[in-house]
Amino acid sequence: MNLELLRKLVETSGVSGHEDRIRKIVIDELTPLVDEVRSDAMGNVIAFKRGTGRAPKGGRKKIMFAGHMDEIGFVVSYIDDKGFLRFQPAGGFDPRTLMAQRVTVLGKEDIPGIIGSKPVHILTEEEKKKPLQIKDYFIDLGMPKERVDELVKVGDTVTMSRRMEEIGDCLTCKTFDDRVGVFCMIEALRKAGKSRADLYIVGTTQEEVGLRGALAAASGIVPDAGIAIDVTLANDVPGASGQDEISRLGEGTSISIMNGSHISNPKLLARMVELAERKKIKFQKDVLPRGGTDGGAIQKAPGGVAVITISIPCRYVHSTVEMVNKDDVQATIDLLAAYIAQPGDMDYTL
């Protein structure tokens, strides 16, 4: 497994709507593997690899793979008279995870900062009972107002500051959602090499704020099948009952039956399960009660599209310490590569 590429992907900044840095990396990685790479007005990276099968009347079947490049983060909304920054989220953050975190403000240069809040020593008893909200936090850049004004403006983005680390059999960082999906997509294409179907490998944008990039890309491609690659919740931790686990770390790639944005096409679901069993790829199935993926947007392309989500189980999603198991990542790569090489008859009509 190419951990250096994965490290580069998860450590690079790219808040929803501001995916410039991560887009360049994805383009550089995909260019040698495909026939054509382009980007669109949404900032999606759309790579095309021509299929090897005979093109019948109407053309070859088209498969769209989608991994979202954006990450949850913040946008500077106000700079006060002392140089402290206020901010608004871009994507869903649990405010409880933000206290005393390190961040990077992407201003004229990358500026380290700290998320601060009112010290506990001076909180009233009533304040102590209330959960903190985004409005209760500020960013401290450790510099005077005049210097802040030179470097930062309203609209600049803010990302959490984290490095990828290995912990036991796992990896942890801030943006496995969904850079690990982008990684699996690239590595699966590299492993499979070719397919009889036309392949569209798409690094999507603005997933965290409404699946926007995937809908735009799918509307232009109009694929026959759409495969979203994302993380799913692994609630296999103390305090969660079995029915709330969704998935478990170390139990393989997760084939989604349904989530908050789509129900997987039954034939496509059966094909993925059959491939995993035949190739002896460790897998599990998940039903995610809330939260969606790019699959929900792809299926809305003109005429409707058969979709499924293949997920990497992830603990502590939407935090600075998201955790995945290395074997689950490899299993996801293996299953995607198997489908690229052997997509079956691709008749998904019901």
Measured by DSSP, the beta-strand proportion falls in 25-35%
Major beta-sheet overview: 8 strands, mixed
Number of E-state strands: 17
Low-confidence regions: none
Report the mean per-residue pLDDT as an integer.
94
Going by helix content, strand content and strand pairing, the class is alpha+beta
Question: What is the radius of gyration computed over CA atoms, rounded to a whole number of angstroms?
Answer: 21 Å
Order of helices and strands: HHEEEEEEEHEHEEEHEHEEHEHEEH
Question: Care to describe what's here?
Answer:
The chain has 350 residues and is of the alpha+beta class. It has an eight-stranded mixed sheet, with helices on both faces. Strand 10 (165-167) and strand 11 form a beta hairpin. The chain is built from nine helices and 17 strands. The longest helix is centred in the middle third of the chain and has 17 residues, at 176-192. Helix 5 (176-192) packs across helix 9 (326-341). The radius of gyration is 21 Å and the shape is globular. It has helices spanning 3-11, 20-30, 125-129, 145-151, 176-192, 212-221, 266-278, 295-298, 326-341, and strands at 36-39, 45-49, 62-68, 73-79, 85-90, 102-106, 110-116, 138-140, 157-160, 165-167, 170-173, 198-204, 225-233, 253-258, 283-287, 306-314, 322-325. The protein starts with a helix and ends in a 9-residue tail after the last helix.
